[in-house]
Design goal:
Layout lengths: L1 E5 L4 H12 L4 E5 L15 E4 L5 H10 L2 E6 L11 H22 L3 E7 L26 H20 L3 E6 L1 E3 L12 H4 L7 E2 L7 E6 H13 L7 E3 L3 E4 H11 L5 E2 L15 H7 L6 H15 L7
Parallel strand pairs: 1-2, 1-4, 2-3, 4-5, 5-6, 6-10, 7-9, 8-12
Antiparallel strand pairs: 9-11
Helix pairs in contact: 1-6, 2-3, 3-4
Length: 311
């Protein structure tokens, strides 16, 4: 039996596949093109299947042809151009609906789906108690957050009506190896800054964000896929609640002369700390320290540029 990973060449997907292979799992990666991308040297250990997540028949074929029994549905698409809006909705929402239905009909043992902390809102000030937890109200204000709320609701309805095991993991901002920017620019300290380049962070210094390392998120997904029993169907991944000023200070801890600027005029967006105790208790994942996570990222960046490591 095998694990199907959709979006396996993505930032999180590639790290999930790496951990699945380390656990000796058979992996099938579902992507529009079968080129290796971020999977690099791992690609020859993976079955690559070409298909479009918007095409229901492609999904069914991938599941039935490869004896899939678990799915990590990690497809992500955020178009920047106005004309990308339709494609984004088809991939993020219609594609997810297709995946849920195909998984149900195939009797898939478990499917893990990444939602977002934007489920709780993002643009308007948060007036509820902090930290938020899995039972805090849904107050999404963006198309992205509203779409995640809709997909979470559908997953719940499938579980209630059909006894499926569709598990939601609400993901925060993610940093770590694999991309230059990271979520909302949080990787720049570890990529541009590590090389001595000026860093322009796209928010006010007091803007807060919840951060988690990509490998910790990948571990949460893998644990959720294979836990013998999951008492809940929604888990907050959680992470570190920090400001952009905190991130800059962390970068200067390792590179004292790092030049960091902020967008002082950027409006403050909703930010709140997250209670991830359910995830830690039931999945057993502890977030690494930000200092260690950023130091590792900076040294990887420097190694790729043939520079000496930081201490």
């Amino acid at each position: 039996m095998a694990v199907l990973v959709t979006g396996g060449k993505g930032f999180i997907g590639a790290r999930v596949i790496k951990q699945l292979l380390e656990a000796n799992q058979e992996v099938v990666c579902f992507e529009p093109k079968a080129t290796p991308g971020r999977l690099g040297t791992l690609a020859d250990r993976i079955t690559m299947v070409e298909g479009d997540i918007v095409n229901y028949d492609d999904i069914v074929r991938a599941i039935t042809d490869h004896k899939i029994d678990r799915i990590a549905h990690l497809v992500f698409y955020r178009g920047e151009k106005p004309d990308d809006l339709y494609r984004q909705q088809m991939i993020m929402h219609t594609g997810t609906f297709h995946m849920f239905e195909a998984a149900r009909l195939a009797g898939i043992g478990r499917l893990v789906f990444p939602s977002s902390i934007q489920y709780h809102g993002h643009d308007k000030p948060w007036t509820g108690p902090q930290p938020v937890n899995e039972d805090s109200p849904a107050l999404p204000t963006t198309g992205y957050g509203i779409g995640k709320h809709l997909c979470e609701h559908l997953a719940h309805e499938y579980n209630r009506r059909f006894g499926t095991e569709f598990v939601t993991v609400r993901v925060p901002g993610v940093y770590g190896p694999g991309v230059k920017l990271g979520a909302r620019g949080v990787n720049l300290i570890g990529t541009e800054g590590a090389l001595g380049h000026p860093v322009a962070l796209p928010y006010a210094p007091s803007q807060h964000v919840v951060l988690a390392h990509v490998d910790d998120i990948a571990q949460i997904v893998v644990r959720a896929l294979f836990a013998i029993e999951l008492p809940h169907e929604v888990y907050h991944a959680g992470g570190h609640y920090v400001s952009y000023a905190d991130i800059a200070a962390l970068g200067r801890r390792f590179v004292p002369d790092m030049q960091v600027s902020f967008d002082e005029a950027a409006p403050l967006k909703c930010a709140y700390s997250v209670d991830s105790s359910r995830m830690t208790r039931e999945l057993g994942v502890e977030h690494r320290s930000l200092a260690q996570g950023y130091l590792d990222l900076m040294n990887l960046t420097r190694k790729e540029s043939e520079l000496p490591p930081l201490r």
